[in-house]
Amino acid sequence: MSVDPASAPTASRTAARAVDLFKIYGRGDSEVRALDGVSVDLAAGEFTAIMGPSGSGKSTLMHCLAALDTPTAGQVVIGDTDLSRLKDKALTALRRDQIGFVFQAFNLVPTLSARENILLPLSLAGRKPDQAWFDTVVDTVGLRDRLGHRPAEMSGGQQQRVACARALVSKPEIVFADEPTGNLDSTSGAEVLSFLRRSVDEFGQTIVMVTHDAVAASYCDRVVFLADGKVVDELRSPSREDILEHMTALQAACGARAGLRCCA
Asked: Distance of alpha carbon 95 from its chain centroid, rounded?
């Protein structure tokens, strides 16, 4: 019996990969290495959090992985595509067709309804929506009765759920979420995180989330920790307590290194 690849287990496949990634700003004494030789594989069908102290490079890593920024050196691969081989037009098409985005600030168009915001990426690409998939996504985020409302007529949690639905409706290879609960109260944040978790478990979606919140990261399958532009640790099946312990140790280590630099 043949197996539909779309329904096959995805955990053994790599959705995105960074290989010896560097992002350097400035030169000489003012040089800053936001990324300093980062290599990491992100498995398909998993929910991964990227965490680290302020200035650790976590947002820079996500921006490079998501083709929003260009690394100074190294390789980024989405699926089977090496981003360094793509010209601007092909990069734009990849971001539109293979990558979904969820931002802290929602980034909804205020003059459009929830339905129109969700379908906007497909409209821009000139693609017709898969109605069955649209219905599945809308019902999963619980927005069926809000589709005609504009962002100003919805709560923050509802707006972020619209943003999540927009990210998923085009069936992207991978979704990048940058502090998706940063502007939400705990109840709304839990609703958004539960939806992201469910999209991984039920739809096989791949999600990479940058967060500073141990509670948010505890929804993930894996947490990758950065410090000083390097991958320094990771956790599988993390609990809030385990994450807090690792983050406390990282903060202390980074503080000690900063002190040594000041004294040098």
From this structure: 13
